[in-house]
């Protein structure tokens, strides 16, 4: 499939779903690639939890922390969210690696901020720099990012997030003022994890296992509905934004890192077509990379 045909198919898929989309996909082993706005700055939302995961394991590999170390999570002061620790009512004691599992598998905001307090935002940015992610930066923790949304939404709170005029003033949706990256940076990070360049093999395997346990099949994985194709990924969502980055592995050994970021003018929280196009676009890109 030619680059021109692939680009046209991606453009049509994004347009049909009513989104603006940016994508980068790369064969992890040959480094063949497909892109559509691959260097566009994008808001990462919860996709940035992947950077936290890599930092945690990098520090563990260096002996600066132990993944079995226990952390306490009292019921007060938790970062809001609908899943994991954020939704629990009682005190919790868990290991760093189990917090990482919750952060990645169900995108638990409280677990993510517990880990960020342990490793530090500066360490996350140092890891990104070490791996050559020159356009990736963490500006806020996840609770802080949600706090900017509350401030920017004003007195009407969450109800205001259905107003397109309010959406335009949210710092959390401006790559220049919040956690950000590019599709190409994210596939570079995924490639480093899958090739054991980010951390020694023991820690790379642990990260790949956790990413393979994500529970959301409605975005990236929806493009690969086969029992013998494995998809490991991390979603990210904010009002009007739906993202996912991950790796698609075929039974013949083919491994493809894919990053898809989308934005729509619609403020509805439920837009199935906007979710599904992430899988559609990823499939188009991977098919192009696998074409003879």
Automatic annotation (TrEMBL):
Q: Which residues form the signal peptide?
A: none
Alphabetical list of SUPFAM superfamilies matching this protein: beta-lactamase/transpeptidase-like
Task: Give residue ranges for domain Beta-lactamase class A catalytic.
Answer: 23-262
Q: Look up the domain of life of the source.
A: Bacteria
Keywords for the protein's UniProt record, in alphabetical order: Hydrolase
Listed GO molecular functions? hydrolase activity
The protein depicted here goes by the name Class A beta-lactamase-related serine hydrolase
Organism lineage: Bacteria, Bacillati, Actinomycetota, Actinomycetes, Kitasatosporales
